[in-house]
Amino acid sequence: MVMNLLRGRNTFLLAATGFSKSRILEIYFSMLPKDGLGNAIGVVVVLNPLDALGNNQVTKKLAAGFTAINLTKPNFTAQACRDIQKGFYNFVYLSPEIFLDNQMFSNIYFLPEFQSKLALVVVDEAHMIYAWGLVESGQNKLKTLVRHQDFAAFRPCYGSLAIPLLTRNGAPLLLIFATCRPAAITAIKKNLKLPDTHINILRGELTRPEIRIIRLPMTDSIQSCDDILKLYGPKEDNPDEELVPSLIYTGTRQRTLQVLEALDRARGTLGNHLNPCNSLACRYHACTGELDKQDTILDFAQENVPILSCTLALGMGWSDDAGMMVVLAKPPKRENSVADFTPGQKQSDEDRMDALAVTPVFLWIAFSMDNLAGSVYELTENYMYFRSGYIPLDKKDPLYQAEVEREQINGFPPSVGLTVQHKRKYTTTRNGPVTKKLLTNNFQNFFEATLHKGERMIPLDLFGKDELKAIVDHYSQIELESNLRRIIKGEALMGQLTMLMSSIRRYQAQARGLIFERLTVGRKSRLIGTKRQRWEGA
Length: 538
Fold this sequence. Notes:
By secondary structure, the chain is an alpha/beta fold.
């Protein structure tokens, strides 16, 4: 890879996150010609779509002994321009907006003095050239690309990079992807005026055996974010400091706050989402203040806050430590099963998203195959379109089987690369009927104790099926009497809400005690079984 750049070859690098792509730049820079003092002569310009990622890379470069700057509006001063022009910085990170539309940077970039120092031009997340290039040309109408403000620095400027990128004074061009389909690579080469003879495409390993993908169907609307209630329990059972570090992605800034409200309901800390010193979760989106962004990232990195509710303004993923990432996505509205797909038909972007939601194959292999360009396998008619990248929908697919065999040869663990583990069977309890019966009996006793005998009303007249159904449907949202009042539209008898709330809290306490008892018994059984195995082995 590095030798390819040293020969002056333009390069596409397609490799998964964790490939140490940033190290390639450091190795390349260290092999540049040196001056009399032993310092490398050259400047590496890196186009980065996110300021947060640029700041992170600058921190790593400074720690490695290089000089680096991430050009943003606050630090883009006249002094910074002079330092860049003189080659004071080894690495210059900047956004596409500054690269294209900032007159101060353009004056520096096109100067012969700076062009003579230019050693390499890098475009990180280069697949955005394809996505935003289609938006500018009017070919792409995806709803995911209509709210530019919710995607921070993911701007349509990426579709107009061809002209300035052609001015490099012979310096090679490196385009870095973590994922990019063959159709997108073809479109990017056309956009940047790069024929096949002028660029090399290098591919790294796309399968990440250390990452596990779990697909869970959403049962609530994406606007409510109530599916998060399935992932987190009460605070008294799991303190904030014991939670797994998590990034929860949503599509809009407003929904990041809705996630915090859902977390409050799950943790039993209503109103905590408005607390600026919240020890559970923080928000991160395009309009978060610059200082707040730094504080939020620092708190998360130091494990002061276990959860970030964010948009793509943060970037995708967190590579420093182990953790969990939750992505809330709308359920498919077109193809809702494998049978809805036509064999042999080319998959559009929307078809691929629907296919990911229903495919029975292992998801990491599906992601890898979506980025494969062509095949040497002999295929049947139903698989002819698979040559251009696709989401497999059948385990008998010859390319899917070939990828499984390749991972087996390369020594990937079976639980990661070869088979989909079957879901455990859990003993479940139907809470709805139990809760309804409990509330009905308690209200009947309350009714008889409150009203005098001989009244013409019966309990069902005041508390019937509609109220019971509303309580069961919104059970996870009931933490206070005010929540219950809103759900059942008030109380018919004085003290009714207090009585019902007491019944619900007693039921919740009993349920938590039962769960704890089952977990304790299960742990004791496993411990006894382990000791017995050791004794028998001895």
